[in-house]
What does this fold into?
Amino acid sequence: MGDGVSIKAGIVGGAGYTGGELLRLLVHHPNVEIAFVHSNSQAGKPVYDVHKDLLGDTELSFTDSLQPDVEVLFLCVGHGEAKKFIEAHDLPQHIKVIDLSQDFRWNESINEATVTEAGRTFVYGLPELQRNAIKEAENIANPGCFATAIQLALLPLAAENLLTDEVHVSGITGSTGAGQSLSATSHYSWRSSNISNYKALNHQHLNEIRRTLQGLQEEKLPEINFVPYRGPFTRGILCTSYLRSNQSLAEATNKYKAFYKEHPFVSISSTTPDLKQVVNTNKCLLYLEKQDKNLVITSMIDNLLKGASGQAVQNMNLLFNLPEKAGLNLKGSAF
Amino acid sequence: MGDGVSIKAGIVGGAGYTGGELLRLLVHHPNVEIAFVHSNSQAGKPVYDVHKDLLGDTELSFTDSLQPDVEVLFLCVGHGEAKKFIEAHDLPQHIKVIDLSQDFRWNESINEATVTEAGRTFVYGLPELQRNAIKEAENIANPGCFATAIQLALLPLAAENLLTDEVHVSGITGSTGAGQSLSATSHYSWRSSNISNYKALNHQHLNEIRRTLQGLQEEKLPEINFVPYRGPFTRGILCTSYLRSNQSLAEATNKYKAFYKEHPFVSISSTTPDLKQVVNTNKCLLYLEKQDKNLVITSMIDNLLKGASGQAVQNMNLLFNLPEKAGLNLKGSAF
Amino acid sequence: MGDGVSIKAGIVGGAGYTGGELLRLLVHHPNVEIAFVHSNSQAGKPVYDVHKDLLGDTELSFTDSLQPDVEVLFLCVGHGEAKKFIEAHDLPQHIKVIDLSQDFRWNESINEATVTEAGRTFVYGLPELQRNAIKEAENIANPGCFATAIQLALLPLAAENLLTDEVHVSGITGSTGAGQSLSATSHYSWRSSNISNYKALNHQHLNEIRRTLQGLQEEKLPEINFVPYRGPFTRGILCTSYLRSNQSLAEATNKYKAFYKEHPFVSISSTTPDLKQVVNTNKCLLYLEKQDKNLVITSMIDNLLKGASGQAVQNMNLLFNLPEKAGLNLKGSAF
Amino acid sequence: MGDGVSIKAGIVGGAGYTGGELLRLLVHHPNVEIAFVHSNSQAGKPVYDVHKDLLGDTELSFTDSLQPDVEVLFLCVGHGEAKKFIEAHDLPQHIKVIDLSQDFRWNESINEATVTEAGRTFVYGLPELQRNAIKEAENIANPGCFATAIQLALLPLAAENLLTDEVHVSGITGSTGAGQSLSATSHYSWRSSNISNYKALNHQHLNEIRRTLQGLQEEKLPEINFVPYRGPFTRGILCTSYLRSNQSLAEATNKYKAFYKEHPFVSISSTTPDLKQVVNTNKCLLYLEKQDKNLVITSMIDNLLKGASGQAVQNMNLLFNLPEKAGLNLKGSAF
It folds into this structure.
């Protein structure tokens, strides 16, 4: 399974952060041939002129023309741009699209696929929830980064109708989550050694999270309150969620372990975790505590990998029946 | 008021972080003469051998003997050590003690002073709550850093019996809060670009906070849930608190402004704040938002200043009838 | 001396980094009244809308009109803009100008003042070299940040004709040296945990440095080689300079101590120094070593203070016969 | 070549930083089976208890006993400990030892192997210089991190007798270079946003560098002056070297490209580089400039990879005739 297979892949929006991270993965993926990397702004330049760490890894250059003979197309463009791209291009139906924007995540229920006007259906690509649907899918809407970290923290509870009381979440994200555009909050002199919250109780990923969890849980979902922070680091998201729970720590741990048993990227830690355990990997690490009446779940991912491009490759692996970890046995940076 | 006055001060435990920060303040305080800086471990060495930034500011050396002819004695020793120090030394009653440890913060009610066996009474030194009691006090128990940030966020609500629903707090602290001892979580290679939570829903400052708020509010206090984080920066604490509230944003803002009107170190920001607005100052900055049914209060301080040594000086100023801001008009580092 | 004196000061270009830092100093300076803060881009806004840490310190707002009744005018505008400003405005001659740009630093010799077409003469404002000239000056050209750090490392040698062999300097600067403009190298995701050199052996401050040193030393100056680095921190500059020298460490140390004896902001450290000893102060710290045939001089300053706005205030103090340290007894951030 | 081959490897000193980094590489290496990971201090514990990011990657535990049936043994112990280990254990001669300490780097000339009393010969393992000797070697002395970065910057010049004038090097290292021991200079509160030099012109790697270069160049080697800095980041080394040179930039570039043509981990960048281009990879990136009479060479590596464990794996690949990049196609962290 996987041996000798080679999938032809195209990348649209290859000059941004998620595009670069995808390239870092695909240049070493044993079953992928990168057919083209599209970028209007950088067309003609070697890929390593923009993603300078790729010097020595690839001689690819950016192009402003699309090649139709690919099997999978990754859309790494901004929110809103993916939908426009799909509408503007008459892509052959056999090309599977993996969209990293939020454009096709929104539907009424996780149990229905999003369908575009041109009849292209998108399945929400959270493999730990939807592995089978993804394997059969035509196209994938790749989840958001905070949404991934929070959903993976809560899925095992929703699956057993245990999200019965209000949930409180705080989470801190690195700067790459905001992309490469220059702004006051991405200025080094501002962000270094600084911390700030934003969109408190009002983050756009809450809809995505609620929709998923409600699709899994029969009982009506309680309030989910979320305070996001900008942290002084570049990669990673760490979230802490808590809610009233009657389960003991052992019971909860068993349920989490059972839920994620077949999922190679999720681990339940038995010692206090920290963000850098997952940085530069496609892993999600979970840690459970019971404090008095509350169950506390800490979850963490690398926002550019499990929260974006790594998850996109995981989805590609499933779509093409490759081993789920192909190209994703990454050396963590650890420090 | 203040002109020409000179208070003789002694410092015990001057080689640690809070001792150093106190020295940085007192060497430039217009109304203080530092009589001695006590340290068993560093006795004989110039103060600038340990607190190297003080080279050029003072020629003081550490001593291992105490001088009795001081008017105020700052205890900058570890938790538990302050109580031992007081018990082991027969300090003349005229010496006012300002203790930065937690040893004398604990009593049943904020409305009663803690009294030691030797008859020394300690008043909880949160000036924005207790200014008048502090002015009349014999000795001061200086509040904890997280406790200061969270109390200043909630005091105006407690004062009007508005802490009626469960409160949810998350907060991130810099590394200096853990002092200068070497440990795995203070190792640069670990902490840099990292984030982790600890003592989730179980932080020791919760007792201090609850006791204060309950002393102010007639209604029984609701649960206060607190998730603390270790952040990759050295100075500062930023907390986000939220609770259900019937007040409009305008109503809440007015109450906060009124409550802190006479308190020079607390400001209500009308724009989104960030931690570095208060770093290297004695300020507390508050920011209010209303999100649907919730009131969200962001509060931030420098943990070594308003959360420790700065507040200790503020308390000294009140004890000796100096201007409250004397020696505390600090240039923030801003970056 | 200084008591009760109040100098009326204006600031042009108050919305930038050096303008903000100057405001942080002047709002607490005992002998200054800020008459106006000029900014075309921010006119009408409170100063604390831009320099948010000043909330609670001042109620000043930016203005786009200049007031003529000031005694001193600080120009905190970009390189090239200061000259244009002087040419465009017919400033009364009694207003002393302190220019923080490089526009009036360039003249043939440190021993001559720069004179504008309108007859305004500028003295190079490095107090440790030119204190007397500054006291008599009409206007001041404030030195560059790297230039300050390197000159203070080498002045005592030049003064004794000891710069006889090639000098090698490396130095690392924090991000605030590049100002607040958004750029690829000021992006947090890029600069965090990163290091890079730039303008190796070709930095523009070399001319300024050479001119000064040659003015002091009779012998022809040797080559000065300088490799600057961008460091992952916000404030400060640390430089290491070395050259062949016949002096012993003791001889060199004595010469440095003698040279800086009357200069309150320069200290010679006898223990290995680090940058944070001077951050958020107006100090320059020097450290000498002898390695085999080489004399090694480490020098460090805060680029926004001794390297810009702090030195500007020091120059103002000298111009107006105030104590040299007035308003500059700053609490270092230390961490 | 390489397919299906599986080398049995043992690790001694597996609980430290280089041991952990080696594990991160070997758990994913296609041609390695880790037979044991030795650690006296952590025996019995799962490897992921110490190197927490390895949770999910391996179920190996530390052991305090050695297994003789390995083909290669990595020594990741401290300087001095490797020699003691070799003396204390009667290792079968067929086990090839790769030592990451400095213990067997020291010999008179790069052209002779170091021989222990027990007759074990060590070849200096810098593959870009010694690939053929390494392929035939019995044991490897793995180079130092700064030594690797500086040698790779200067080898092409030494190879052509062009190191004719004094060389000046400055370099900045991340904190992991100092290992995991707790010390004042590894304390987060100290090192964050700080910079300091150490061992100026006196670093222990200078001997290693000089010995290598002199072995390659016929002409007597000139002085090599080196100022090392501790930087506020965890991974990586960036060095700038310069010397007088008669070559044009084009000539020098051609020589460097020719020298490294067959070496897959070294690239010559044509655009200004920065450290993060190599972090979390086994690459060395070089950048050349000509400034007036000087040739300036910037070189950078990840100190834990090309500067330690990555180079050790590269050496193992050569020793066992595996593809040189096997297990070393690493995804850089880039941010």
